[in-house]
Design brief:
37% strand, conserved putative lor/sdh protein from methanococcus maripaludis s2 fold, alpha+beta, six-stranded antiparallel barrel, Elongation Factor Tu (Ef-tu), domain 3, 389 residues, 22 strands, 33% helix, single chain
């Protein structure tokens, strides 16, 4: 009986332990299920709508159609002063850096020989004139003799042969006179050439200028067209650019401007004054020029940065990041009733991070997605954050 009772007590203790273990397992199961349920609730409550920044389009943006360029400064009036006649440089009257006035003598070529040539030409002319005077006297005498012989022949006092000899002598005297006249003309031409050469031996400044370079010195032999000096007029400078041929038709003289990166004498925008009439067949470029304001900050040979402005206009605009190609055309997104709405636009110029919206008009009632538009599609629900432009 005792053994049966002990066995019964042991079975009851075992059942109690098993029940306790089961209750622990069920408790843990309930905890896990509760945790899982909480997680599902958290996921359900998590925000899935993208956050975008919105604002209204600006209506006063200035858009510029321009091209970045670098130009070279040069004097508008610059010249190569060359020798006009062959000879040795007798004298050089100025040096590099000298300021000269129009008409000042810069150098002289072989003047002594040219002065001798002028004196010789004057002597030749004087001799030719003397011979002409002598021929004139001879012509007068021959005409008188021929007239007298004609009267005598009519009176039968002389023979026809004597008359003809007198007439031939008169014609010979006239031919000699005409030859003497030709010699005078030739001598006058020779004297004019000699005087011109003498004048050309002294080469003068073509205008008020600065001597920028000297190529020859006293004693050097020079010939016609050989450069001796380079001069330039510093009162007027211009800047010159080379543009690609694709921009040829876009340049309008008197309208197209150059906007200098660094203002000169307080001036930033200058109007183009020259466009080359043709495009280079080698480089496929053409030259444009603009006159620079007078300032001591500029010298020939300097490089200046700027941009050629083909067009400038004010219009409505949005940040460039707000415009994207959607479906093969430009578009922006507006937020209407918490959803993204695609608006097809015609985009124009882009300047300093702003994109021109030509059409349609984006009034103040349109909340445009300025940042984050790449995260949304048509109809997506979004959260918004207002920004001012």
């Amino acid at each position: 009986m005792l053994s049966i009772w002990l066995k019964h007590k042991m079975n009851m203790a075992r059942d109690t332990l098993i029940g306790a273990r089961r209750r622990v397992k069920w408790a843990w199961a309930l905890v896990l299920l509760a945790a899982a349920g909480c997680s599902e609730q958290v996921v359900e409550r998590a925000e899935t709508r993208p956050l975008v920044r919105v604002g209204v389009a600006r209506q006063d943006v200035t858009f510029v159609d321009s091209l970045r360029v670098q130009g070279s400064v040069r004097a508008k009036d610059a010249a190569v002063v060359s020798a006009r006649i062959p000879g040795t440089l007798d004298a050089v009257f100025v040096d590099e850096g000298a300021q000269v006035r129009k008409g000042d003598v810069l150098f002289q070529v072989d003047r002594q020989n040219l002065e001798n040539a002028v004196r010789a030409a004057k002597d030749d002319l004087a001799m030719a004139k003397a011979k002409l005077a002598q021929a004139d006297v001879t012509v007068g005498k021959a005409k008188l003799d021929a007239d007298r012989m004609a009267r005598l022949f009519e009176g039968g006092a002389v023979t026809k042969d004597a008359l003809e000899k007198a007439q031939v002598a008169a014609k010979s005297a006239m031919a000699a006179f005409e030859a003497a006249q030709a010699m005078v003309t030739k001598a006058e031409t020779g004297l004019a050439v000699s005087e011109k050469n003498l004048s050309d031996s002294c080469v003068r400044a073509p205008y008020d200028a600065i001597v920028t370079r000297k190529h020859r010195n006293v004693g050097d032999y020079v010939g016609p067209g050989m450069c001796v000096f380079e001069v330039e007029n510093p009162s007027v400078y211009e800047i010159t650019f080379s543009l690609n041929a694709a921009h040829f038709a876009r340049v309008k003289l008197g309208e197209t401007t150059v906007r200098l990166t660094r203002p000169l004498a307080g001036v930033r925008d200058i109007v183009l004054t020259y466009r080359a009439p043709t495009v280079s067949a080698v480089t496929r470029t053409f030259e444009v020029r603009a006159q620079l304001p007078r300032t001591e900050d500029v010298a020939a040979g300097m490089l200046l940065d700027g941009e050629i402005v083909f067009a400038s206009r004010a219009g409505q605009g949005v940040p460039s990041s707000a415009v994207a190609d959607r479906g093969g055309s430009d578009a922006v997104f507006a937020v209407v009733d918490g959803k993204a709405v695609r608006i097809a636009v015609e985009a124009g110029l882009e300047t300093d991070g702003w994109r021109e919206i030509v059409r349609p008009a984006l009034g103040p009632d349109k909340k445009i997605i300025l940042e984050g538009m790449l995260l949304v599609n048509e109809g997506d629900e979004v959260r918004t954050q207002d920004v001012s432009l």
